[in-house]
Amino acid sequence: MTIKAVSEKKKTKNSSRKKEQVVNEKAPLLPKKIAGDYGRTEEFTGASFTGSVFNLSTTIIGAGIMALPATMKVLGLGLGITIIVFVAVLTEASIEMLLRFSRVGGSISYGGVMGDAFGNVGRTLLQICVLINNIGILIVYMIIMGDVLSGTSSSGVHHAGVLEGWFGEQWWTGRTFILLVTTVAVFAPLACFKRIDSLRFTSALAVALAVVFLVITAGITVIKLLNGSISMPRLLPDVTDINSAWKLFTVVPVLVTAYVCHYNVHTIGNELDDPSLIQPVVQTSLALCSTIYIMTSFFGFLLFSDSTLDDVLANFDTNLGIPYGSLLNDVVRVSYALHLMLVFPIIFYPLRLNLDDLLFPSARPLVSDNRRFTLISIGLISLIFLGANCIPSIWDAFQFTGATAAVCLGFIFPAAIALRDPHGIATKKDKLLAVFMIGPGGICKFGGHI
């Protein structure tokens, strides 16, 4: 071969490489749809174990932490903490079962494994439940932000928000205006990320802010214990009549909702550098979140006892009776408001994907259609904003989502997949566990109507 021929061959090869690079640069951040599911792109090499733990932990540890001290008021500390651990163990078992059936069926999403077991009806039902659950949870986030920054009167007594405490009652410290500014300035920009791994840093910061809230609450409680201003609360529920007995069931939807993260497990697992690590990611996240849940429930209920509100953050507007109490009140509330702002996009991400797949199952990938991506995002954020201004208490929202969609996503659907057993891999233990997991579903539905 002549020198000229070799030179021409090199030029042709270099030209091909340049063309390939141009094509790769235009590839979408999220992978293309394959049978309605999402995989990886060539440019994205994979998410880290730590980043995945933060993302899944942030999915779990959202608004539920604020309602858990109120569940201790109903159950007592001993029974309440026992049930928190029990629900965490049950959640891990349901996710393990879900992932096992996903691997055997070759499904890379929750919707995929539901479709494998029950066809399009199962997939559609799953998507509807994700919409109900995630919209409800995000409404709860906004309600808490309104409570923290503007104040709340849901208990019949007005509790001033941070801004109202600093500046008094002004038109711009009102609930609607504060939520509008927060939505436009914070929620909307954070909802624009097109890959869930892009949120790993905000998720890490969100977990850190939750720990800040916990540390300060624990510190205040220990100081008040040492000076003798609070005493040990009830360990068991106070059941005096039939109404107080029925009230015990109302906490189950709150506890179930606090652990539901199943709709994000596949997405996080698909983006992992080593997808086989998804089970350790789940176990690590559940252990971390359970620890935070238990400590928050313990110290929050210990601090406020039977005065604990549905949203414990609203309790931090009173005189704590310790030095710098007012400053600590504000730090606690502002840190957790910031935490929820950073959690919002993690819950919003699967909400948008499932709505798009439900409405446009045959359309090109959402990430490659900026117009559809924008319209769906604006529509969902507007709906959540309206809901937060119409629903007075987070307890109401938790009751609804926990008694309907959350229990289906967390327990009933994984149990139904195991009982259906489309590939004949379910063991006797799986089927017994599946029957047992349907139990919380019935309790949640009963509790949600009390």
TrEMBL record:
Record localization: Membrane
Chain segments annotated as transmembrane: 49-68, 74-93, 124-144, 172-193, 205-226, 246-265, 286-304, 334-352, 373-394, 400-419
Tree of life domain: Eukaryota
Cited Pfam families: Aa_trans
Protein's UniProt keywords contain NADP: no
Region (Disordered): 1-23
GO terms under cellular component: organelle membrane
Keywords: Amino-acid transport, Membrane, Transmembrane, Transmembrane helix, Transport
MF (Gene Ontology): L-amino acid transmembrane transporter activity
Keyword Membrane: yes
Residue ranges occupied by any Amino acid transporter transmembrane domain in the UniProt entry: 46-419
Protein topology in the membrane: Multi-pass membrane protein
Protein name: Amino acid transporter transmembrane domain-containing protein
Organism, scientific name: Nyssa sinensis
